[in-house]
Amino acid sequence: MTSTSAPVSLYGFLTPKAGHADVLRKLLLDLVAPSRGHEGSLQYHIHEQEDGRFFLYEVWRSQEDLNRHNATPLLREFMAELPEHLDGDVEAYFGAMISTYPAASGGGQGN
Questions:
Q1: Closest Cα partner for 24 from 88, 107, 103, 102?
Q2: I want to staple 24 with a disulfide (CB 3.0 to 4.6 A). Which of 3, 44, 73, 85 is the partner?
């Protein structure tokens, strides 16, 4: 697949409910390998903050690739289960990358 659109990034914070950090950590980490294997995945990272929040950082070759990733059964199941483990809403941000991204033509690279 060839795309002329700019890479898109998705990043944000998830705050686990008290007693749910271990479950949420596992759910998030279980997404990493399959998501990195999806077409158009350029970066896919999970970080754990000192305050207990989880920070996600993803870069996709195009909005189409991100949409395709979000439509997978894996992501739909995760999103359905997510609210029971969160304290509050997901703090999420999306945007077109305006700096040059050297791996933009590849898929599943640089993860």
A1: 88
A2: 85
CA–CA dist 111, 33 (Å, integer) = 9
Helices (H), 40-94: 63-70, 73-81
What type of residue is 54? F
**Which residue ranges form the domains of the chain, and what is each CATH number?**
15-96 (3.30.70.100)
Coil, strand or helix: which one is 4?
coil
Tokens at residue 111, please?
A: 């993860």
Is the per-residue pLDDT at 43 higher than 90?
yes
d(CA 31, CA 12): 15
What's the pLDDT at 72? Answer: 97
**H or E element at residue 40:** none
